[in-house]
């Protein structure tokens, strides 16, 4: 859980977007907030500025990014008293219940909507925003102390990157929207199911003090002879759908994620300038070398993005696990229509999904892509697409 939370944060830590000058007085306040790592104060100042200058698309861009990272930070801060990933005396930590965790997740969804709305309002507008990554600070754990972004992502430290000034442009709006939609989809996908039994039997591995009827699990949470906790986890990923409306919203967010990935790659491919790029095409130079594409990588990323969109929309099928390694790159066969699960699903049973019988109602004949999906599960998506994780998934 702790590594997941850190990954979610690192996904875009380098993307705080603040201008060198934001017209008159707000620019000074914003720089101060950035150096102090005070996102909530920055949001307040930017919201006031946007209200006074609604025509300023770059300010809206900044506001959307600040809202996204504040949503993630607040979620992390909310869980901090419960000792995510910590060991030792559980009495040092507050007791986390299933209800409290879902409450925090619901708040995360509400906060992400604010970021999505701000960013959506500037999709077709010309924006350019500058930020020196070396100056960004982040109060990750809510202790009131802002730490340098390089503490979470060493790749942007002054030792590794001598010039970390980035110019974010219109293409990067889609990068941020993909981030926001993907995190919201993941969150809502979980909230659409009932996994209380899983929480009460397994979450002692993530939090040292949970509200569970199985108190003996908390006496020594590190004891795990024969991997029994992992066996239980697999067995207990058998979650009924309890909110079909939310599951359909999860699908819409996944589709929006894929759509913004496609738009990002299209806009990046068309760029002719080379101005301190965040995501760079083969003719450009990325400030962070890991976010630059070679020609072959760019083509593969575009094909993967198209395949993912087709899969989400049910135009292509996900191979059955029992037939995953077989067949040519594209062929007709039996596969899983994921769109139907998000619109008709009643239960997610991991073991029976792998077996195949658990997806009987969503299995049909159609076009299946094997080759690129094998690349996906071998990590090629995160190394080459660089859109839903960038550096944290590239290493």
Short characterization:
This protein has 395 residues and is mainly alpha-helical. The protein has helices spanning 2-10, 24-36, 39-52, 57-79, 98-120, 170-191, 196-202, 228-236, 244-270, 295-312, 338-344, 350-355, 371-377, 380-385, 391-394; strands spanning 129-132, 137-138, 147-148, 165-168, 238-240, 318-319, 330-336, 347-349, 363-369. A 3-stranded antiparallel β-sheet has the order 6-7-9.
Give the topology.
Layout: H1 2-10, H2 24-36, H3 39-52, H4 57-79, H5 98-120, E1 129-132, E2 137-138, E3 147-148, E4 165-168, H6 170-191, H7 196-202, H8 228-236, E5 238-240, H9 244-270, H10 295-312, E6 318-319, E7 330-336, H11 338-344, E8 347-349, H12 350-355, E9 363-369, H13 371-377, H14 380-385, H15 391-394
Antiparallel strand pairs: 1-4, 2-3, 5-8, 6-7, 7-9
Structure description:
The chain has 395 residues and is mainly α. It has a domain at 2-168 and 196-236. It is 49% helix and 9% strand. The chain has 15 helices and nine strands. The protein has helices spanning 2-10, 24-36, 39-52, 57-79, 98-120, 170-191, 196-202, 228-236, 244-270, 295-312, 338-344, 350-355, 371-377, 380-385, 391-394; strands spanning 129-132, 137-138, 147-148, 165-168, 238-240, 318-319, 330-336, 347-349, 363-369. It has a three-stranded antiparallel β-sheet with strand order 6-7-9. Strands 1-4 form a two-stranded antiparallel sheet. The longest helix is centred in the middle third of the chain and has 27 residues, at 244-270. It is globular and about 55 Å long. The two termini are 19 Å apart.
